[in-house]
Specification:
Layout lengths: L2 H21 L2 H5 L2 H26 L4 E4 L3 E3 L4 E9 L1 H5 L6 E8 L2 E9 L4 E6 L3 E4 L2 E3 L11 E4 L9 H14 L2 E3 L4 H9 L5 E4 L4 H13 L3 E4 L6 H4 L2 E4 L1 H17 L4
Helix pairs in contact: 1-3, 5-9, 6-7
Bound molecules: D-MYO-inositol-1-phosphate and calcium ion (2 copies).
Length: 265
């Protein structure tokens, strides 16, 4: 295992342990909305602090892009961190949440770790070295088309997002496939595509920390990663489509058709 990936794994497991120590108390705290929000924020913040501590213990100069602390440092190595992806699930004790850590070197995504502390499933990948789940090699699915495929997605939830445009895509994809799942943690959705549990996935308006690790996983598992318009980088636009090569093509085509037919508002 690459030394940087090794540090990322240690950091993800440590943050995962911290998150799980709070898991049984979530119900209690949900009664008090404000406290609950504070509590979750505290879990997010302390998980991120713990990850950064791990990184800086080994590499004090490395730069950070963390959901909770933002961008800091100036280095060719940037750690892109979502300390708790799937906060809403966590709040409901719906066990689909994860720690996500991606590592970019000179602007290129090199390593990724996604760790579900509830199931203790650990997804790892390094560019050129393949992707693994708990140390065993994983590959994207062999589905040939959308027919019979299981597709993951995330719903738009911010006010400025085009919900109607999304629903039009959703409606067509739902009718063309065996099913669409919205599990609520984008990093795990991407990991599931890498593991062949989902044949494809798309979401609009994601942040770099939702995607960085998952993108490395999907690519290294033999999948394709693209941006909704067919051009550009999802790490910049936040609009991502992934899948095994055949499903990626079909899914991307369907989405692009909707983007093209979108009427000006
Ligand atoms: C969210 C989850 C969710 C996705 C949202 C993300 P968070 O991350 O990944 O699945 O639909 O777009 O913001 O806020 O739980 O870290
Ligand atoms: Ca997230
Ligand atoms: Ca988060």
């Amino acid at each position: 295992m690459h030394p940087l990936l090794n540090i990322a794994v240690g950091a993800a497991r440590s943050a995962g342990n911290l998150i799980m120590r709070h898991y049984d108390r979530v119900d209690e705290l949900r009664v008090h909305t404000k406290q609950r929000n504070d509590f979750v924020t505290e879990v997010d913040r302390s998980a991120e602090a713990r990850i950064i501590e791990h990184i800086h213990r080994a590499n004090p100069n490395h730069a950070i892009l963390g959901e909770e602390t933002g961008a800091s440092g100036d280095d060719e190595v940037v750690w892109i961190i979502d300390p708790l992806d799937g906060t809403t699930n966590f709040l409901h004790q719906f066990p689909q949440f994860a720690v996500s850590i991606g590592i970019q070197v000179r602007g290129k995504l090199e390593h990724g770790v996604v760790y579900n502390p509830y199931s203790q499933e650990l997804y790892t990948a390094s560019r050129g070295a393949g992707a693994a789940l708990d140390g065993r090699r994983i590959r994207v699915s062999r589905a040939n088309s959308l027919e019979g495929a299981l597709i993951g997605t995330g719903f738009p939830f911010r006010d400025d997002q085009d919900v109607d445009g999304y629903i039009a895509m959703f409606s067509e994809i739902m009718r063309k496939t065996a099913g669409v799942r919205r599990a609520g943690a984008a990093a795990l959705d991407l990991a599931f595509v890498a593991a062949g549990r989902l044949d494809g996935f798309w979401e609009l308006g994601l942040k770099p920390w939702d995607m960085a690790a998952g993108i490395v996983l999907v690519r290294e598992a033999g999948g394709m990663v693209g941006e909704m318009s067919g051009r550009g980088d999802p790490m910049n636009s936040g609009n991502i489509v992934v899948g095994n090569p055949k499903v990626y093509e079909a899914l991307g085509g369907t989405i692009m058709r909707h983007l093209r037919t979108k009427k000006p508002s």
